[in-house]
Amino acid sequence: SNQGELCDKTKKRRLLLKERENKLQRSVDDLFECFQQERQTIREEMQYLQTEKQIWDDMCQKFDTTCLPQKIKFDVGGQLFATSLQTLTNRLHAPNFFSAMFSGRLPLQAEDDGTYFIDRSPIAFEYILNYLRGQEIPISLLSELTLHYLKLDATFYGISSLCKSLGIGDSKNNTRFGEHANVELNEDCLVAKKTTPTAWNANIIGSETYTTGIHRLDIEIVSSTHSHIMVGIAPESIKQRLTEQNYDTCGFYFYAHNSNVYSGPPFYHGKQYSDHGRVMEGSTVSIILDLEERNLEFLIDGTSGGIAYEDIPIDEPLALGEF
Fold it and tell me: How are the residues of the chain apportioned to helix, strand and coil, as percentages rounded to the nearest 5?
């Protein structure tokens, strides 16, 4: 009988342990389910926070690029525009007219109302600012007139990437120095040095000639005696070995010594072009040749002196260069 009682106690003990095991398993299952639910809740909250963070990051980016300090106001041909200094000096599109304008190297004078006056047509200026803001220009939707002025402005303001997008022959990027007289060129034909000490007997023209389109060439004056350098355009037939002056026999030129312009036929004259005076070493003179409008313009460190010549004859291909 003692053995039977022991067996009964053992069975009861096993049943009790089994019941406790089942109870514990149910608790573990309940805890695991709670853990799974909590983990899913945390995942959803993290996803929500990541989405919210992305929204805030996007908003901050928009604030950084739109709600900017140092607002700049322009009066372009009588129409007002506003943007930020950060937009105008964005390194992505520099160097250009605006980065030079606000580089601190030029004496700027705002109008009484705080605007900066630019004496150009305002037709495409909105698109110029939008491009500098990083917005794509809907070129296919532009009218023929707007596209024409956009090409002129892209060239004038020296925005190389936009010129490329518009298919403009932006000479400052692809023109090397070509034919020359009494000039020494470096290996890549981008730097020219006069080999004669005196006299107007040295000249050099670009490797490209043009009869259509809008073209630009930037020439930096590295070293010069009293800035006796002329830059401009000349016909392909220019007599480069001529020992006399070419500037009053053919072509159209800007004289760095006094900021005057000189030309051959059909104008045959020299005249004051800019009150800038002598262009010093380290400065850049830009030639802008618009063969669509048949006019010529010069920029000194990004600042234009206006249209120098209109109705330029295109009897033969023209070259940009230094004379």
Answer: 35, 25, 40
